[in-house]
Amino acid sequence: MGFIENAIKDMTKGMIESGLADMFSDVNNSLTTVTTDIGKTPAEWNGSIFNIIHSLSENVILPVAGIILTFVLGYEIVTMVVNRNNMHDFDISNLFQYIFKCFLAIIVVTNAWTIANAVFSLGKAIVEQASGVIATGVTLDDSTLSGVSSALDSLGVGKLLLIALEVTMLRFAMDIMGIIITVILYGRMIEIYMAISIAPVPVSTMANREWGQTGNNYIKHLAALAFQGFFMVVCLGIYAALINSAVVGAISDPETLHATLWGLMGYTILLVLMLSKCGTIAQQMLGAH
Asked: Which of the residues 16, 81, 201, 286 has the least number of beta carbons within 10 Å of its own beta carbon?
């Protein structure tokens, strides 16, 4: 009877230890993948989609932006004439200012695609520097696993089977959380592609003070999308720090093992919630709406 019980304990311990090692390995792989994807520009993330969006922007959106810009510049000169008492108070410098504004507006609108992508190149540089400062990995070394093994030796078969079931459930739940995080990342990139596809239209309104709020808010929205990646890296760093300090150190204590495992689950749920809110936080910080 003792031989069978020991065999079950050894098998269950092996399942728990391998499950924990695989779980933390999966967490590290997910964190690495997320950090890498966050730092990619639209062109790097998916070249085929990028080319499609570029073609739409150049061939469909840019002509519409040209029409809007023509109307805005026409409205601008009418406003200038009216404000100058039907040209009675006209100054030749006003004409040069208007010509310079037209020239600058045309340059900005025709290069709106490049400007929008430059914002995300800057965002990539910020994310890469933040990733170099913030540790986003979870450490579970051999000594910690050895401590887990020693802790499991003091437990009976019933508790070991319960812990093995918990570890299996947590691994499944963590996989689900990984899928949700991937969906959040894909959603952000799709939003970025939608934003840069229409870049010439909101930028074309910036030649006029009254209409220019549309273009100004568009630039703020692009900046918010770029800094959303930075806030995501911050969330990943906080998550890794919480896991390393509160979970890895306590996982070898049999008295707190159950709470530690479910604490890991709680931290992962918190990570998912915060990643989903990073876009809203970035918009609030930069005043975009």
From this structure: 81
User: Which tokens go with 153?
Assistant: 């030796």
Query: Cα separation of 260 and 200, whole Å?
Result: 52
Task: Report residue 159 as tokens.
Answer: 């508790």
CA atoms of 272 and 285, how far apart (whole Å): 20
CA distance 265 to 283: 29
Whole-prediction pTM:
0.83
> Is 113's pLDDT higher than 80?
yes
Closest to 261 in 3D by CA, of 4, 7, 23? 23
Residue 182's nearest CA partner among 24, 38, 23, 28 is 38
State the Cα angle at 55 between 49 and 57, rounded to 5°.
100
> Cβ-count burial of 1 within 10 angstroms (0-12 exposed, 13-18 middle, 19+ buried)?
exposed
Round to whole Å and give the CA distance between 226 and 127.
Answer: 9
- In Å, what is the CA distance from 219 to each residue of 41, 51, 135, 176, 216? 17, 22, 31, 35, 5
SS3 280: helix
Mean pLDDT computed over 99-116:
90
Q: What span, in angstroms and rounded, lies between the C-alpha atoms of 152 and 174?
A: 22
| pLDDT tens figures, 224-274 | 999 999 998 888 888 878 877 766 555 656 666 777 777 888 888 888 899
Q: State the Cα–Cα distance between residues 263 and 41, nearest whole angstrom.
A: 34
pLDDT value at 280 more than 60: yes
**Cα 271 to the center of its chain, rounded Å:** 12
Domain boundaries of the chain, sorted by first residue: 2-64+111-286
Pairwise CA distance, residues 105 & 202, whole Å: 12
The stretch 131-157 carries a mean pLDDT of 66
58-67, 145-154, 161-170 — most confident range: 58-67
